[in-house]
Amino acid sequence: MTEYTQNKYKFQHYYSKKPSSPFKKKTVEINLSNGIKLFFVTAAGVFSISRVDRASKLLIEHCEINTRGSLLDLGCGYGLVGISLKKKHPDIDLYMSDINERAFTLSKINARDNNIEAVIREGNIYEPWNENKFDSIVLNPPFAAGKDVWEKMITEAPSHLKKEGRLNVVAYHNKGGSRIEKIMETVFTNVRTLVRSGGIRVYVSVKL
Questions:
Q1: DSSP letter for each residue of the chain
Q2: C-alpha closest to that of 181 among 160, 151, 159
Q3: CA 126, CA 130: separation in Å to the nearest integer?
Q4: What are the chain's domains?
Q5: What is the pLDDT of residues 37-81, one digit of tens each?
Q6: pLDDT given at position 13
Q7: Is residue 91 pLDDT above 80, yes or no?
Q8: Which residues pair with 170 in a beta bridge?
């Protein structure tokens, strides 16, 4: 691979609709707190291709959700968070979406390979879910996509939550998380921190 090609792929972010980097698959694994081990197929052009990122794992282990309700994994990537939560809580009705065509394909593969039933759609932010309301939404914001994208994911969340539905967001507090916390407080009039670990926090707001 030439230096030019490497640089071209380097500056593509994972929220692109059509990644042009080579579709070379890798496998990562996660060990859940209940002892379950899961394997996921990843590839270049999606978020965290070589390992399970710490923020997503914290979100999986500490989010506050309705374990018998509907759950949307927004910007799902290869499906790590949603599929892991469904394995932990089998009574969840799982929904996942991402604008990235490659992420969409991988999330379908990973749901199938991990024997998970899920409704998976391709599209930007909440466009695939115009008529849907959920009991819970989980989000690891795509900061690489820019402020307009991740802020909209938060500000439009109440329109896609049922009453007493919860939005869970994970972020590094000093790298955008403090801003997210303020927006959640403004939009929902409430926000709590569920866990702090190594600069990462999981925030939750409830639709009142």
A1: --HHHHHHHHT--TT-SS--S---EEEEEEE-TTS-EEEEEEETTSSS-SS--HHHHHHHHH----TTSEEEEET-TTSHHHHHHHHH-TT-EEEEEES-HHHHHHHHHHHHHTT--EEEEE-STTGGGTT--EEEEEE---GGG-HHHHHHHHHTGGGGEEEEEEEEEEEEGGGTHHHHHHHHHHHHS--EEEEEETTEEEEEEE--
A2: 151
A3: 6
A4: 53-206 (3.40.50.150)
A5: 999 999 877 877 778 999 999 999 999 999 999 999 999 999 999
A6: 53
A7: yes
A8: 202
Q: Mean pLDDT for the chain?
A: 90
Q: Are strands 200-206 and 93-98 parallel, antiparallel or unpaired?
A: unpaired
Which pLDDT value is given to residue 14?
61
196, two tokens: 């702090």
pTM (global) more than 0.85: yes
